[in-house]
Amino acid sequence: xxxxxxxxxxxxxxxxxxxxAAYAPAxxxxxxxxxxxxxxxxxxxxxxxxxxxxxxxxxxxxDLCLGHFDDGNELxxxxxxxxxxxxxxxxxxxxxSGALGRLRRHAExxxxxxxxxxxxxxxxxxxxNLHFVKYD
Length: 136
Prior knowledge:
By secondary structure, the chain is mainly α. It has helices spanning 3-19, 23-37, 44-47, 49-65, 69-82, 86-102, 106-120.
């Protein structure tokens, strides 16, 4: 079996596990897909953009859901650095800001959301300086 087939098989198993909220097994399959993806010597983000985006995003999402913030954040930062457009970054921004919120790092989550809105740039400038108030 070639490497791309192994990536796709493990990714599909990981997606199916996520669909039934089996995040721990999903993480195992997605990490295998990521391991095989990283075997490519060339820049996977250039030659295999679509599968790289899906594997990195989904693995990051699962890591963040499981509370593995450092691992999930590392993958999320790679997605944000390599995604071709803002639309491809939206899922990652949402997952990362949610994880920051769960860690009670609200200021960082707010700043991330503001950066996302600024990058999208279709948002009217009057919304770029939103202030959030936390009520107990």
